[in-house]
Specification:
- It is a single chain.
- It is built from seven helices and ten strands.
- The chain has 211 residues and is an alpha+beta fold.
- It has one domain: Alpha-Beta Complex (tt1808, chain A), CATH 3.90.1570.10.
- It is globular and about 45 Å long.
- Keywords: Endonuclease, Hydrolase, Nuclease.
- This is Uma2 family endonuclease.
Length: 211
């Protein structure tokens, strides 16, 4: 009985998109609705970071842009839809996206250059499952922005502190480089967050923290 009830609660991607496609609060994982619980501070960090990434894209004259809203559907055979905080798309390949002309849904990994997740209370998903999903999907660069230092010690070290983890896709796996707030304050000359795709990005962790 309980199993039947659980099964009935699962959503298909199509049902999720119809009911929650325009609601930035929710994403879908294996048919289960996920409340991302955004806060004002979360949106502050996301907004500051999107602005800086946009400036870098413009300065380097890249054919990329950050959509206002976008769903990532990494696997057509699994009812999963990710709503990343920032997605950088390559407009030169969007003509190959089967849904993009009608709906803001990305189904091809090569359409995405960078994806950013700003960590909230469900940090385990950002540090574990999404690392695997985005690597399989073939996204070249994935940022995990943990502005409150919520992640486990295994991910951000000890003592726990605000940390940005930049994951670069090498073959089929991500290599990770961590940028911590304390290091930024101690060594400002080397505190710039390094993106392998945005070479001229001028950004420190303390630039995007809420005041």
């Amino acid at each position: 009985m309980n199993n039947d009830l659980q099964t009935q609660k699962l959503l298909t991607f199509e049902t999720f998109f119809t009911q929650y496609g325009n609601n930035p609060r929710y994403e879908l994982a294996d048919g289960e609705l996920v409340d991302m619980e955004p806060t004002g501070l979360h949106e502050t960090v996301s907004g500051k970071l999107a602005t800086q990434i946009g400036i870098a894209i413009t300065a380097e004259k890249l054919p990329w842009f950050i959509p206002r809203t976008c769903l990532i559907r990494p696997f057509t055979d699994v009812a999963t839809a990710r709503r990343s905080d920032i997605v950088v798309l390559d407009q030169t390949v969007l003509a190959n996206e089967p849904l993009w002309q009608r709906e803001p849904v990305i189904t091809l990994g090569r359409s995405i250059k960078i994806v950013v997740e700003v960590v909230s209370t469900n940090w385990e998903t950002d540090y574990a499952r999404k690392v695997e999903e985005y690597a399989i999907f073939g996204i070249p660069e994935y940022w995990i922005v943990d502005y409150l230092g919520l992640g486990g010690v295994a991910f951000i070290g000890k003592p726990k502190q605000p940390t940005v983890t930049v994951c670069q896709l090498i073959e089929e796996d991500y290599t990770q480089q961590l940028f911590r707030l304390s290091e930024a304050f101690a060594q400002r000359s080397v505190s710039r967050i390094v993106s392998h795709l945005l070479k001229n990005l001028q950004l420190r962790l303390d630039d995007i923290l809420p005041r």
